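Most newcomers find our protein records easier to grasp once they have seen one. Sequence and backbone structure share a record, each on its own labelled line. To make this concrete, we reproduce a full record directly below:
***
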Amino acid sequence: IGNQKWAGNVEIHIKSSDWYLHRHEQDEQYNNVILHVVWEHDVPIFRKDNSVIPTLPLKSFVSKAVLQQYLALTKPKSWIFCESQIRLTDTFLMKNWLESLFFERLENKAVPIKNLLAATNNDWEAVLFYSLVKNFGLNTNGEIFFKALQSIPFSVIRKESFEVQNLEAIFFSQLDLLSEAAEDAYAKDLQARAYYLTQKYRLKKNGVEPVQFFQHRPDNFPTIRLAQLAMLYHLRQNLFAKIIAAASMTDLYELFDSGVSAYWENHYQLDKVSPAKKKRLSKSFIDLLVMNTIVPIQFAYAESRGKEISESLVQLLQTIPPEKNIVIEKFANFGITSESAFETQSLLQLKNNYCSKGKCLQCAVGVNLLKRNE
């Protein structure tokens, strides 16, 4: 300030009078503030020794035109603030921003993976299993699946994967899907297996809420998803190593090409016969697993090994068709169309972490639109 170099804290308010509104004058920790940054300087602020705290009012440094453009941009709209202007964004800028958003989304998804890694003593196979569990439950039952099956040590999954009915019995039991009133032989067999395995491994239940069947198509019933998960781990040993080695979507489609045990081919629920159907994992479901589980785990694993695989992850998702949901449809309505899952994943990050939170000044699109109108 002037010719004097200062070291200390900076306090930021909208108005300088907010200093008194927040009662900072009563807190000795604020005596070492060296600069008060405000939008509007309406009253002088003093330290306890009556010296004036230097104030920097920003209002005088922002042109009225830019301020008006910002206020116009952030007026309430039907969906997002820039909906009427986003299509004007420079193509090169949008491409780079979407790539940044994609890796920001990956970083966010890597956090729970790292937490799982710490909780499982760095067992990547276990991390993969519990991550897949959540995604097999989809949005409705994902958290329920995850919490319930976390009560099963992955060492148990490894030991019992030689028999698919054993995995089904444990999964169904931990989610309270086995009824003592079951009448058919298969249901009774699962009940008996579950009792034995629960005692053998001293399994406890996490007390989760009931799984939801309502509003799900039969192929997405929690019973079917659990049966598919059991069959996957019955058929694929060392799944994590195979996923890390997979170089393309073709490899991953082959790896996840599994269905259900014979019983579930003509059942959607225990004790209720239905028309026969193979119920294999569909390509669209595998796409979801790749987007939400496989790619984040590949990213986190490479990061833990100090390897750079960013370009290959982008290329992988560029081979997956774009997702179909209301967010992607809305962006398309406003001129931002997607050609692959790479772009839809980026747009979901944009909507959830920027548009919905009004972070226009932290968004490359928002800043670009403001500069365009200067």
Summary: The mean pLDDT is 95. The first helix runs from residue 18 to 21.
